[in-house]
Every structure is written in structure tokens, then in C-alpha cells.
Amino acid sequence: MAGLAVNNTPLVPSNITESRIANFMSSKTIFYRMGIHRGLWTLRHSGSPHVEISVYSVPDLKRITFQEAVSQTFQKVTQDERKYGPSWATHWFKIDITIPDAMFGKPVVFQWNMNNEGMVWSTDGVPLQGLTGGDGQERHEYIVTNTGISGNRHSFYIEAACNGMFGVGDGAFVPDPNRYFSIEKADLVVPDKEVQDLYFDLDIIRGIAYNTQDESPRAREAVWVINEVINEFILEDRKSITKCKKLTEDFLSVNNGQAKGQHQITAVGNCHIDTAWLWPYDETKRKIARSWSTQIDLMDRYPNYIFTGSQTQQYEWLSELYPALFEKIKRKEMMGQWEIIGGSWVEHDTNMPSGESLCRQMLLGQRYYQKHFNKRTKIFWLPDSFGYSSQLPQILKQSGCDYFFTQKLSWNNINKFPRSTFWWTGIDGTNILAHLTPAETYGASVTVAELTKCTKNHHDLEYSNESLLCYGHGDGGGGPTPAMLERLNRLKDVDGLPMVKPGSALDFFEGIEKNSRNLQAYNGELYLEFHRGTYTTQALVKYGNRKSEFLIRDVEILSTMATLLSRSTQSDVGTYIYPSNTLEWIWKLLCLNQFHDCLPGSAIGLAYKDVHKHHREIISATLSLRHQAQSAIIRLRSLSENTDTKSQQGLVVFNTLPWNRTEVIAVPRQETDWTGQQHNSDKHEYVLVKNVPGLGAAGYVAHTADIAAVDEEIGAKAYQDDDGGYFILENQNLKATFNHDGQLINLLDKKTPDRQLIPNGAKGNVLQLYEDVPVYWDAWDVEIYHLQKWKPIEGEASIKVVSEGPLKAELHFRQNISDKSSIEQTISLTCLSERLEFDNVVDWHEAHQFLKVEFVWDLVSDHATYEIQYGALRRPTHYNSTIDSAKFEVCGHKFADLSEANYGVALINNCKYGYATHGNTQRLSLLRSPKGPDENADMGQHKFKYAIYPHQGHFNSSDVAQQALEFNVPLSLRYAEDHEVRSGMVLEPLFQVEPSTQIILDTIKLAEDNDNGKILILRLYEAYGAQAHAILKSHLNIKQILISNILEDDTNDKLQRVDNTSSFKLTLKPFQILTLKVKLN
Ligand SMILES: [Zn+2]
């Protein structure tokens, strides 16, 4: 993308540019010396010996003839010697010029200004020309000679009348009989022809900029040209003047009717088919066939017609159900009439899917195109999703996409999005070329109004004079119609309208890449100021998505471990085969259900039957796969070590996070107790497991030192205090005090005892009910005014201690939300935990009510940090501007953090995405109750968890990302017997990142093309926004580690090995996603 640089300066508002240009062109401003006027004339000389002035003043206001005048005696004067008057008097000047050496060979001009009227006479009495001064119609120049010869003398007379053009009056034209005039200018000059030409060019271009149709592409280009001239202009540098002249000449050389100045539109046919929305997936399969077969027919009838189709899932359905039609599409694609586009498995939501999900959308999509069309697409196509994550530029660039297209931000209902063609900059600094069609639709009909809108609405015409028009009826409307194609044919090149041509989206993007200049950049998320309810609506779908994402992660890691173990074990008994096909099926199913009306919650109930079924299938399949992988690991390890076979009871605990963990877990009770210290009501026993290795497993044998009771003194406690009757949870780290409504009225971090986290009189864990009536889009929108109408849920609560400790201390509280709905909460602290956890069961039967939980902290910060895919994003905590206040409800993943410079609190969740932070108040959105398009949305029982994690240091230097992962990825355990169990390390860490403070190793899997299990893929990311250096360690026999990308391509970049070990050096930039391809011997 060389040549298409990012504009490193801000876009200048039109009014400021206009003033800048006026200053540059003017001879009269205080900045005159910086403008062009100073350069119009050069080699200025005045006074003796080059300009000699003598005068004869005619008495009595008489007007005399030339002959009379020259017969008088003239007095020598200097320029400033006296004034000439009074009004109506006449003064004859004799001017004697001696050409200076410097003017040799040049045209010599005499400039004269007395701010009055004059006549130039030759010495033999021929009137030569008039001179005028003042009143904006100055004429000061008299050409002395066209070719100066040094030392040559030239003489002439000036008959000066002491009146201006409009007499000698004041503002009301009343004559002033006593006006006097002085000689302001009597100079010899040489014109600078090139600068004068430039000046006259600019004068015209300025007129086009501000005196033709405002905002026309030509006018916007005119503004750009003058501005560029001012930036380039250095009077003393002739090269700079030549460059300026080239800019103005190029602009003015475009004649009437020539295409260059016209706006260029590329029109591409499409039909946006929502993969499910107001119909279920199965109907979509038929919509695709109906629409796409119609388009094949149109291609036959209109040979120039080009259509683009996205969503590889739709291609796959078509190939399975309508193979003949799929073959036709492949032929049209080869002929260039059908464009494959998008690159992702479906047009998914980009707010809520995890980092790995976004990567897998691209991996599945691009591999599908590669397999069936033998190419990838360079265009990420997402016209209709509800906002765009700021991690997308990096993910797209690492997935073979150079271009991004959407239009959805035109739906903003508060601020107009300020860019059309621009560089979109992600949180890691990656830029991708983006276009938001100024037509503001993906379902255009090719009308004059739409074509005109492309120019009127284009925010970046200074830099790019092109638009993409996406036309065609979507959602089963069948795409473009013959009428649209007929209009397109006629509109190609019509005077008064932009030029429009059929073309592919790739033609368009390659065109702007070639023709644009200095595009502006837009940094960070493309936040949609609309549809903010979609972070919360259909809570079970969000739960299913999050749960599936983490179970798949577990399965891929454990299956990789089992595969490698199986490969290194010389035994047939232990053979384990990586479940590649099942995993691909699971990923496709998960990615399908991240479609932009499914995961956001905006589809009908019938569609959600499928979504829920798919999530159940994923969860059940992954649990089964995880079990199989764990069994294989236990089996292979026990065989390979040939331990003694004494029968004993024990646990094998698996940790798929890449660091060591010590935690309290709930273990199913077997015939005997493990320690017998503490049970819960589900017949589980709490057990403290120490040092479960990261990306490994450890064994714990019952009735040994492996599983020991916890000293009561250092354990967790739940109790009711003596005087106030408040309920308290306490361990070594935290002391939390609750009132009878389950509200947190005090929270003490014992490591920083001076810090009371809740301000006096404020509360946390306050459940709130907001009236939630949007303007129109029920399931989609929560509107800004909902913040004005709400109530806390208080009274009639019951709260009690249910576990006193010492492993885990628990309070239980129950509260009616209304006469129909209720909430039960188990609030807990373990003996070691630094997190205060809230486990919720809600019975929810509301209409247009929004349930949230609120915490008020004793913290001051103008920003909060929210987790997004493989990184975090700062957003304001204030409503300063409408851009800030439009973000009154935002999307976050596992945590939102509010930090001062050295202390903060994170609000962590296990399946929620809606957050708000205002001032020191943090809210997590829990449940909505819209009635359309699914009248039963969210009715029934919900289970979810959230937690509070106070920490020292700002978020940037905390371990919040790790804590949020631990909250979402519980240790998984297997009950084991006999020879299967042993103390200590069962499986040593597969990989270790040291230190693990910033870099998180998220994904481990076999490569898609894995050479019989010998190639692994690792995905790591930097989680806090700072450059990170670490060592990647492994016990595997590694041949080399390539720095790959999301598509798992081979590259020449390798990780550097540390000496001759199997350790490698890692360096990650802020929020970098690093995909490694580990090749084993
Ligand atoms: Zn859509």
C-alpha cells in the first residue's frame, strides 16, 4: 500500500480553511509577509538615484494643459517630504528613472500610489494611461520598459488630481475641502511572472471552492488544492513555486465534461441475506437458492453485470442442498461476474465473540474460499453488524484482508460518523483501508437520488472522489432487479450526475488505493450509537456462546496434550486421535450462531430454538471430547510411568490456563470424605488443591498431605456481626459487609487497610430495575432516557449465612424483583480468594424492564477499561460531549475496570456483555425483557455470575485479565482410582510463558494442516497495552517456531531460540496477537 499514506494531520473545518486562504491571498493582513502577495513583484527600488521626483503644484485649484504644466519650474522632492492638497488641487510630477543594474534585461514597472487619480504623460505630451488609488479598485502600475538596460534613463510626467475616484467625501459622500494626499509608493519593480500566474490560478480556484455548489466534489478538490499550495509555498524556493503551479495547472486543466472531476461510483450487486432473523436457518437455505439462482439468470442476460456474495456458511449450505446451482456460481466466479467476498464464516456480530472466535470466523471462511474457489478474498464485508471491535483491523490484516466495508454507522442516532473513506486504526496500531458507503445502504436501487447522495454525503472528498454503491433487494428479495440494471446502463455517464459503472468491490477498493491521497485515520472502535440493548437481550444465547467458547478452548488444549502424549508413548493401548473433524463441525456451529441477528438477540423465537439447540449440541460434544482427552491423558500417563497398582482414591485436576493455580474446588463426594472439613448443600465437598500446573495436570491422593484441611484461623468466615446485624464475609484479603437487602455497604482490602472501597453512604451490589421502552427497535435498543427512570430493588429480602467456612464462606439472599420475578444470590469468598463472587439465579417474568447491578466506588478516574477481543479498550466515564454520552451503554467481555493511578476495581462476569461506567459508578447489565420480535425473549430462569476484584496498581499493571480468565475457566477435575492416580505432577506444563504478567497464551491446537500431529498452532496476545518481552518454554522436541498468521500460513519469520534449549524469545507489541506455528521433530 505504498503511496497511500495516512494523513497525520487533522481534517480542517471548511470555515478555517477559508480564512487561511483569505490571509494567504491578501495584501492587507497582518500576515502579509507570509502570503503570496509579497512575491508578486521583486527587485523593488525607490528613491534616488533610481527614482527622482520633482513637482509643480498648480495654484488656485486650476486644471491646466500639459504644455502649460511642463513650462513651469519643477521642484525636486523626496517621496515622503510633503503632502499634496487641498481637495481638487492638481500637482504635476516629473519622474526620472534610472534603471538599476539588477533589472537588466527584465521588464521594469513603476508603481505609483497617492490614493488619488492620476494620468501618466510622455515627455512629448502624449497621455499614456491612468492611475487610480484606493477603494479596492487600485491601478498602480505603469510599464516603464519591457527590457531594462542598466543605467538607461526614462522620464515621464504624472498629473495627480487631489480627489479619489469617488470625490473627496467622507462616509456620507459630503465633500471635505481640506483633504491632503501623500506619495505612498513610487517604486521600480520587476514582476515575478510565475508567482503572478500562480496567484491568478489560485484566484479562480478559490472561486470554485467557495462560489460554486458547496460540497461538490470539484469544490472540495479546489479547497484541497489551495490548501496544498499554501503548505508547499516557499517564496524563496523556485522549486516550491513550480510545484505549486503544477497543482493549480492540473486542477484547471480539467475541462467541462471531463471525467476526472466527476465523482466515480462503482456499483456492485448484492443481496444481504440475514442467516436467520425473522425466519429460522432452514428458511435461509431456500432464500439463498432463490436469490442466487435469480442472479445467475441476470448475469446471463446482462453480461457486464457483477454481483457479490458473502458468508461461506451460505455457500456451504447451497453446495449441499443445490449442488448444480453451486457449480454455476463457481463458473460465474471464474468468468468474473460473481465476486466472493467477506472472508468470515457468517456476517457475525463483532462486539461479543471472543478473540479466538473472530480468528476462527476468518480461518473457516478463507479456507472455504481457498478450497472451493482457489482464492481468498481481500475484502472484509460486514454491512449490517452492530458496531465494530477495535481489534478487527489487526485480525483482518492477519487473515488476508486489506479492505473493510460497512454502512451500519449511518444508523447512529446521536452523532454523524465523520468518515467515508479512511484508515481504520485498531488498538494495536494496525491500519486497514475502510469505506462506509455514503449511500448509507446495502440495498440501493440505483436511483438518481442515491447517486447524488454518494457525493453529498461523502465526508472525505478532498482525499478520495469515489464511492461504492451496493444495490439489490436483500433477505429473500432476490438481489438486483432488471429495472435496476436498466437504470444503471442509462446512468453511466449523464451530465449533472456522478459517473457510475458496474464493477466488483475489489475493483473499487483497488481504485481508491490507487487514486486516494492522504486519507484521514479513525482510531479505535467503530461504536454504533444504536442497538445497545443487544449486549444483553437473549441472555441464554450469550451464556451459550461464552460457555461454548471456553469449552472448545479446553478441548483443543487437552486434545493437543493427549495427541502429543499419545505420539510420544510407544504403546497401542494409548492411541489417541485428535478430533479434527468434530472440532471443525463445532467451530462452524458456534460461528454460525454468532450471526449478527442471533448472538445480539434480535431474531424471532423460532430462530432461537435452533440457536439454543446448537449451543446444547456444542456443550454436550465438548464435554464429551474433554472427558475423552482427559481419560486419554490419565491412561497414557499411568501406563507410561507404570506406577504401583495399590488401590487408592484421588483426583486429577486439569488446568488449561498457562499459569500455576491454587484454588478451592467443589468435589463430588465419594464413599469417604476427602478431608471432611466442609461440604456444600449439593453433596460436594470443598477441597483446596495446590499448585495445579499451568497447561498441565496434577494428582491429589485422598488422605495424604495432597489434600489437607485448612487451618480455621486463616480460613474464610461468614457471620452476622453483633451490633448492626450486618452480614460479613471475610478472609485474609477482604472483608465485605452486607445489609439486609444484600447490598454491599463496606468493602475493605486488608492489604491496603486505609482503603475503604465504598464511599460513605454509598453501596455496591445494588440491584436496579430500569423502565426500558426504546423508540422503536425493541430487542435492539435501550435508549439514553432509560437512565432517568429506575428504582432500586429493596425490601422483603431474606439473607442468611449458608457456609461459615473455612474453605469457602457463603451468604445466601433472596429478593422479590416484582410480584412476578425474583432473584437468589450466593455471595462467597474462599480462604484464598481475592475476588468476591456473586452467583445468581433469577426467575424473570417482566415486560420492558431492564435489570442491572450497580457498584459505587471510592475512586476517581476519567476513563474505565473494558475487555475486548485479545485486548482492552478505554472509554470515558463522563458525558462531556455527545460522543462521550452516546456511549452510555457499552460492550465489554469478561471485565470492566475502574482504576486510579495506583488502585482499581474490576467487575468481572461469566456471560454478560453490557456495561456502563459513569463517574465512580459501575454497572453491569443483567437482563432485559423486550417483546419483539421474540415475545418470550428472556422469560424464565437465568443463572449467571459476577465478581468484584479490587487490586493494587492501575489496570495496566494489574492481573485483572488473568483473574477474569480464572473466573471463566474453572479447573476441571476427574475422579480417579487405583493405578490412575498419583501425587504431584501428572502432566507437566505443555508451554510456559515467563513472565506471564502481560502475555497470555490463549489457544493451543493442532494446525489445520498438521503433518500427522507434528505442527501446533499457538495464539498469544499482550493483554495490557505495553510492549512485552518473555520466554516461551516447552518440554517438547521443537524443530522450529514460525511466526504465522490467523490463516496459519508459513512464513520466513522464526522465533529466536535461547541457546540450545527448547525456550524461545517472545516480544509482543501492545495488544499484539501473535500466532505461532510450532513444528515438532
Ligand atoms: Zn443483516
TrEMBL record:
Signal peptide: none
EC numbers, comma separated: 3.2.1.24
Top-rank taxon, per record: Eukaryota
Catalytic activity: Hydrolysis of terminal, non-reducing alpha-D-mannose residues in alpha-D-mannosides
A GO MF term: alpha-mannosidase activity
BP GO terms, sorted: mannose metabolic process; oligosaccharide catabolic process
InterPro entries, sorted: Ams1-like_N, Gal_mutarotase_sf_dom, GH38_C, Glyco_hydro/deAcase_b/a-brl, Glyco_hydro_38_C, Glyco_hydro_38_cen, Glyco_hydro_38_cen_sf, Glyco_hydro_38_N
Domain Glycoside hydrolase family 38 central per the UniProt entry, residue ranges: 529-615
Keywords, in A-Z order: Glycosidase, Hydrolase, Metal-binding
Gene Ontology CC: fungal-type vacuole membrane
Enzyme class: hydrolase
Role played: Degrades free oligosaccharides in the vacuole.
Similarity remark: Belongs to the glycosyl hydrolase 38 family.
Name of the protein this chain belongs to: Alpha-mannosidase
Organism, scientific name: Circinella minor
